[in-house]
UniProtKB/TrEMBL annotation, chains A, B:
Role description: NHase catalyzes the hydration of various nitrile compounds to the corresponding amides.
Domain Nitrile hydratase beta subunit-like N-terminal: 1-98
Keyword entries, A-Z: Lyase
Native organism: OM182 bacterium MED-G28
Keyword Lyase listed: yes
Catalytic reaction(s) noted: an aliphatic primary amide = an aliphatic nitrile + H2O
InterPro entries per UniProt: CN_hydtase_beta-like_N, CN_hydtase_beta_C, CN_hydtase_beta_dom_C, Elect_transpt_acc-like_dom_sf, Nitrile_hydratase_bsu
Enzyme kind, highest EC tier: lyase
Pfam family, one: NHase_beta_C
Name this protein carries in UniProt: Nitrile hydratase subunit beta
Assigned EC number: 4.2.1.84
Automatic annotation (TrEMBL), chains C, D:
Keywords attached to this entry: Iron, Lyase, Metal-binding, Signal
PROSITE patterns assigned: TAT
Ligand binding (Fe(3+)): 138, 141-143
Annotated NCBIfam families: nitrile_alph (TIGR01323), TAT_signal_seq (TIGR01409)
Classification via SUPFAM superfamilies: Nitrile hydratase alpha chain
Family: Belongs to the nitrile hydratase subunit alpha family.
GO molecular function: nitrile hydratase activity; transition metal ion binding
Protein name: nitrile hydratase
Amino acid sequence: MNSIHDMGGMHGFGPIVVEVDEPVFHEEWEGRAYALSIGWFPASQYKEWGGFRHNLEKIPPKDYLNMSYYERWFFVNEQKAMQLGLVTEEELNNGNADPNYLMPQLEPHPDSSLGPGRLDLEINAKFENGGVVRAKEINGRAHNRLPRYVRGKTGTIISDNGIYALQDTNEKDEQPYDDPQHVYTVRFSSEELWGNASHGNDFIYLDLWESYLEFA
Amino acid sequence: MNSIHDMGGMHGFGPIVVEVDEPVFHEEWEGRAYALSIGWFPASQYKEWGGFRHNLEKIPPKDYLNMSYYERWFFVNEQKAMQLGLVTEEELNNGNADPNYLMPQLEPHPDSSLGPGRLDLEINAKFENGGVVRAKEINGRAHNRLPRYVRGKTGTIISDNGIYALQDTNEKDEQPYDDPQHVYTVRFSSEELWGNASHGNDFIYLDLWESYLEFA
Amino acid sequence: MSRDGQKIDRRKFLKGAAVGAAAVSSTAISNAQDQESADHQHAPSDIALRVKALETVLTEKNLVDPSVLDEVVDRYENRIGPQNGAKVVAKAWVDSDYKARLLDDGTAAIGELDLLGTEGEHMVVVENTAEVHNLVVCTLCSCYPWPTLGLPPTWYKSSAFRARAVIEPRAVLREFGLEVSDETEIRVWDSTAEMRYLVLPRRPEGAEDMNESELADVVTRDSMIGVAIL
Amino acid sequence: MSRDGQKIDRRKFLKGAAVGAAAVSSTAISNAQDQESADHQHAPSDIALRVKALETVLTEKNLVDPSVLDEVVDRYENRIGPQNGAKVVAKAWVDSDYKARLLDDGTAAIGELDLLGTEGEHMVVVENTAEVHNLVVCTLCSCYPWPTLGLPPTWYKSSAFRARAVIEPRAVLREFGLEVSDETEIRVWDSTAEMRYLVLPRRPEGAEDMNESELADVVTRDSMIGVAIL
């Protein structure tokens, strides 16, 4: 989806602010919120991070910018737990589980046949190193990993990283994970991407699933 | 510049919310802020709306989304009045002019030799109706009127609207106004712009200065 | 309708999440209505004082004439509005010569009625037909033909409309209750330069006997932006 | 450094406006530091309570084991961090065979040191040379090689870094104090899939006599992201 998370190439955010000797977590709640994301993952019905990322991206732009990084993480976990009926708003307001609340029988976690990570499959590669490709215009509300700033742009394949299940979710936030594809690293020139604002010696590299690409 | 104002094609903002029987102004301050924008224009040193718009666009994205429309207008006027030294923060905090504050002698308003509006000039047109053009990638921090969603895209000239001075400002916010050009209406297909999210019978029209375009 | 504070429970978010609506009353998150209402409502409490201060200080320095401001507010609250555009549309409906001039050179034809002015110096009129439906937007700010339609409504200035009109005009029109058939071509006019756009809606059925003045009364603002038909 | 409340007067905005910084203490406007500090600081005051509530309720339902959470926090606060990546870099500097394996197949070579793991299962190592400088970013979220660098710093997750690294890397590096000559090629790695990137910095001059362990001590996190050299 085309929302504020897809911010590559935007102006207006000001300088990079570096905090010297920054702690890993600034407040205890940040660490707990982070760890909760890991710790409850098996119960969360996410197949992998794609579904989690899609929920982050669905935070309205104003709220996305108003929230801190860990606040966003926590927010989507809180929402997801309620969405699944694992917790109720009342329980969260009270701070304790309601012993009389019956959790729904969730469908068994629909394991992907493929799962994340590099897959040991044999699939013919459509593109080869040195090949010139164009990134497609993919603008639906579903989640993908193709930033707006490279869509429609032409680049060169510099490596084939092997086979991975496509991480995209569909609009319903399902993550089918049944579409294994080659993932290529593609090199784009700054000139191609940014025209008058480019530098002739800058190059941007992205890892793109085969279905994001077409012959240029 | 590529900031949040350039929101054509974004998702995530939710449904269109329509207020029935909406008043022209919801609060008295909205009307005064609006009228102030018009009323102080001669003193503001803006040559035309381009400079004003650039200042709106420079509001950081988070603030841009947190502010209402008239709040943004007022904010840039307030900033500009202080920037010019016409008013001081202290005066604004007190709500009255300080009789002892000496306003700076501003340079005479640097009138454009051309001004805004359609110009009665003879300039050869580079493109003609029916011609196929590509919008350039123009990504600098300066102000222009070429939305990101058409950059790099191919469309068809459907009319030549005559000669207008380029409205762009440079990065320093100056608006030279010395670059008269043909302005064309260009028709883009939804398919060209949005790929898989397009409708085959949707077309988007933009008015684009000649220097934004190249032969496709 | 979006001005009341909403106490929306967390569950509402879940339903609306697919279109990006969100609401948790106990947090900073906004729901879509909150978000849109920000377009006229979010202002900090002291905004009225700040506006008053700037006007007063500039007035005391003779850089602003408050009577000019009074006049501007009065102009858009009471004199300039969609009734102006409606006159143009009604005349085009009853006068085919005028209609031809209007579609050929909107600026000149609207000038005949003395309805040009700030943010409407150069007008283009686009005609709805059985085959074509037109929709006007300004994605970069909120350009709008002030002299013929007045100041734009909040939804026209909203992020949602600006963002969505160019990528999913049919979904936008559906939210306005307008279902456009797949066979109908939609033309979206993104106002990027000095041209301002007015949609010439189709004359409604059952209006055959109306005179120009009566016709003007049935022309709505939304039909001249293209989010409604008559 | 950005955690203190800033009372920045209106004039500061004017100076910073060209890069989009803004500040009016009396309004909702933020300055750039405020804005960035939002990345770890903006949370509403009850966020700590809400986090505690969710953890408690999930724990009482046996859906979460708090000792697992304790372990995760401890892991990233105390055990996993840039010292891991530094070991990889130092080994590559002293062992040319290892370096060749590392650049050829980062995953396998880092696996030799048992430094793979969540968000770092598939590693690519990119080498800085006299001709090429590498910089890592994730524009869409904040992907980062957790097992070798720990959790990312706030600036890496900031909107400013995510937005700017791909369009103006040289300006970004300049803000980190790194001036890259026009003749040097910059490669920006936007982490969009499951590959995670580690920059192999150039061995600093004057470090010829150091052993592997001493070398590891001079490798900084920032040099392995590509915003610093050694």
